[in-house]
Design goal:
about 160 residues; alpha+beta; Aminopeptidase; 4-stranded antiparallel beta sheet; 3-stranded antiparallel beta sheet; 5 helices
Length: about 160
């Protein structure tokens, strides 16, 4: 059984590991090696999660965090599910919980960014009603273009 709850500071080491494994599984087959190397060097998770865990919700299987979402204002700022627990509905549960937080803050739309190098996530978000609002391209140091899509969707409840 999966339980969603607010993150705790004691979750941070496991959440960092979930994010790292999820990111790598999402990009290992589709992104250029230079992007993966840059991600590994930057290690943003180790810096980010100790600061922003209070904004996160976690999915637990037993006592173990296996997924997280970080709603920030009207943005779904991160959603990761451990590779061993993907395609079991956890991502949808986390996404909807994040949207509920955003809706409770008074926003009627949610938005997020997604890399074009992550086609599974793009498909997931589109299946949940997100549509492309904009797209930007960054030239990686290796010369490979990297596209980032901004997706959004209405949070209006069906009557």
């Amino acid at each position: 059984m999966t339980v969603l709850r607010p993150a705790r500071e004691s979750d941070v080491p496991v959440l960092i590991e979930v994010a790292r494994r999820s990111w790598l599984s999402a990009f290992a087959q589709t992104a250029p090696i230079s992007l993966i190397q840059r991600w590994a060097r930057n290690d943003r998770e180790a810096e980010w999660y100790p600061r922003y865990w209070p904004d996160m919700l976690v999915a637990l299987v037993g006592d173990i965090p296996v997924g997280l979402v970080q709603p920030s204002q009207d943005e779904v700022n991160g959603l990761w599910v451990a590779p061993t627990h993907q395609r079991q509905g956890l991502g949808a549960q986390l996404l909807h919980a994040g949207e509920d937080v955003i809706r409770a803050k008074g926003f009627d739309r949610a938005w997020l960014t997604c890399s074009a190098f992550n086609p599974n996530a793009l498909g997931f978000y589109r299946a949940h009603g997100y549509t492309e609002a904009s797209r930007s391209t960054e030239l990686l140091p290796c010369g490979t273009p990297s596209e980032t899509l901004v997706l959004d969707r209405s949070l209006a409840r069906d009557s």
